[in-house]
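Predict the holo structure. Ligand: V47.
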Amino acid sequence: MQTIESIAQKIRAAERISPEEALLLWHEAPLALLGELATTVRYRMNGRKLFYNRNFHIEPTNRCVFNCRFCSYRRPVDSPEMWDYSMEEVEAIARSQQPKGITEVHIVGGVHPDHGLEYYCEMIRRVKKILPQVAIKAFTAIELSYMIRQAGLTIEEGLQRLIEAGMEAIPGGGAEIFDEEIRAQICPEKGSTAEWFEVHRTAHRLGLHTNATILYGHIEKPEHRINHLRRLRDLQDETHGLDAFIPLKYRNFGNSMSSIGEVPITEDLRMLALSRIFLDNVPHIKAYWVMYGKTTTELALAYGADDVDGTIDDSTKIYSMAGAQDQKPVMTISEIERMAAAAGLTAVERDTFYHEL
Ligand code: V47
């Protein structure tokens, strides 16, 4: 019979664990042991480096054809809180970042009913013209799938056009939870799990690097989380195109699932540690500080995370609207360096592709 100690030995010996073993760890391993094992794997894969980048977000609109139950960001077209930036406003945001040594812009927003593929190619071209040195990581797989299908193209043809316009990487959003039954309850209209995988698999074939996320801490159970990780590990065995995995904790302010509440920090740490242990083929685990807040992010560094995302410069609203502590999210390089030092790590600036700068 399998014991926690025999599974721990496998992890220490760099052997892969099964979904059943991961589930046993989830339910029965002491949190401190998970921290120790995740840290062993993290040192093996990333040494004592803590990665970060200089980045900002552009969120062109919060109009969306979908109405995900967990989303605090979407607004209907007639709401005074709805925004839909013009191309000139997007350009002005890009221009405001010119002097800051930024290396990445992350562009995501709602799935707008009227803006098509060509509109977004034009947006990428204009941002790239203003910030030629900056890598464009743009659009969740769900936004991409929608705009490409609306244009009557295959995913491959649509991605090719975006790549020609200047898109260089795809963020991990839109994954939510891959289990189809849970997904149908929290985001019934949204693009499917199969669509998410089709976009990422095709992107990897075309040479794009992508990230993956999970939205956890709502109505799903530990087995759904492990199954989500298992599907990603299988994809990565096949394509090797995922750079980072980002567990996203469900934040409950201002959306129609608010009554569910939020899971405790101990569960965040379990999620991070099991992600690091299970995804033995994904190089980086990102503790997205904007979503966790800075204190939990610091704890995350003892549970497998080797990346905290970036400086952000108060450019994203998705999490402040969902109840995150930092209503104006900004992280300075010296804050990141202090956080790294407190964890016995060295802060390393990276670009979008994890080249050290
Ligand atoms: O897909 C929306 C999530 C995601 C809530 O790839 C929520 O580097 C919690 O994917 N509570 C978009 N989460 C953000 C995202 C992301 C963020 C940072 C870095 C990267 C990357 C990707 O935000 C959505 C959804 O899963 N989300 N509402 C909420 N109330």
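The CA atoms of residues 69 and 185 lie 8 Å apart. The chain has 14 helices and ten strands.
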